[in-house]
Every structure is written in C-alpha cells, then in structure tokens.
Amino acid sequence: MGVRRVNPQPPRAGAENGAATAQALREQYESGATVAEVVAASGLSYGTVLNRLHEAGTVMRTSWQTRRLRDGQARRNLAAHLRLLYEQHGATLAELAAAGSVTRRSARRLLIEAGGTPRTTQQTLRIRSAAEATARKKLAASLRARYEAGASVPELAKERNYSVATVYRLLHEANTRMRPQHRHGPARTSGKRS
User: Fold this and answer.
1) Alpha helices, DSSP H only, in the chain?
2) pLDDT single digits (tens) 143-159
3) Rounded to whole angstroms, how far apart are CA atoms 170 and 137?
4) Which of 28, 59, 178, 194 is the most exposed place for a label (fewest CB within 10 A)?
5) What is the pTM of this model?
6) Angle between helices 22-30 and 35-42 (to 10 degrees)
C-alpha cells in the first residue's frame, strides 16, 4: 500500500487579500455584520475571526444588540435618540456608545446617519463648561432665595451636602446681601464687672 498524499486546500479568497486583517474584520463587524457573516465573507474559521476581532479591540455585541442595530426603524430611533443626547445634552461619543450599547465608532456612525455633526473635543468642553456655568448660576440663585427667606448658611450647607465655604462662595456669586454675623454663646449683660 502506497502513501497517499493529501493536497493542501487552497487559501480562501478573503484570506489572500487585506480583507482578513484584524482591523478590516473589526470594521465589518462594527458596521453591523454578525460574526457568522464576517466568517463567510473572510473565509476564515469562526475561532480565527473571534481572535482577530479581540486582537483589534472590538467590543462584542449581544444578539439583541445586533438585531437592533440592523433593524431599520429601531436603528433610526436609536440614531435620533443619540443625536438628541449629543446635541441637546452635550454628551460625548463615549457616553453615546454607553447609552446605545454600541461602540464609539457605531455611535459616531449613527449620529451622522441622524444628521448630526461630530464635534471636536474643544467644542464639547465649551458646551459642557457653559452648561456647568448655567447650572451653577441656577444653584446660586436658589441658595440666595433660601438665604433671603431666612435660612442660615450652615442650614443650607447641610441641606445641599456642601461645605459652609462653598455655600458662602455660591451666595457671593449670586450677589447676596449677607446678614450681619450673629454672636454665639450667652448674651452679655451690661453692668459692673466683679
């Protein structure tokens, strides 16, 4: 009996070109393809595709996240919701990704699909700092109203869980006219000292 030689199988089409690189596989997956579809398109084994996706730092989806990402109306709803968070609440792409249970790249793509325009980091910081300044002014005004209604600084600090110094600073920012300091302890009596 002679030794039978087995011819090696030719490499599959996807593995020959650059379509099977870890980054290319990640891009296919993040655009909404399932792992099975990436396997079919690349010609690689399921395990190899998973390894390359992990190697590229891909955040894996659950099956329901994939269905939601691929379903037209659900995708449009998600994109609109992410745009609202991005434009009206100043959310970052990382926050959009967390809110939508998608990757940052997918969140960016959904934002663009909904007609949104990605911001630079500096633009996001300006939006956030303006929002924080507005919230601080509102807080200072509410503290001023409570103070002018008779609440003491220590009471306000305790209510808001702030330090007394922070309450004083916020009252000062709201141009609050401060009451005179009260003396603590027993009242002095006028008269002769013994």
Assistant:
1) 13-16, 22-30, 35-42, 46-55, 63-70, 72-88, 93-100, 104-113, 121-148, 153-160, 164-173
2) 999 999 989 999 999 98
3) 8
4) 194
5) 0.42
6) 140
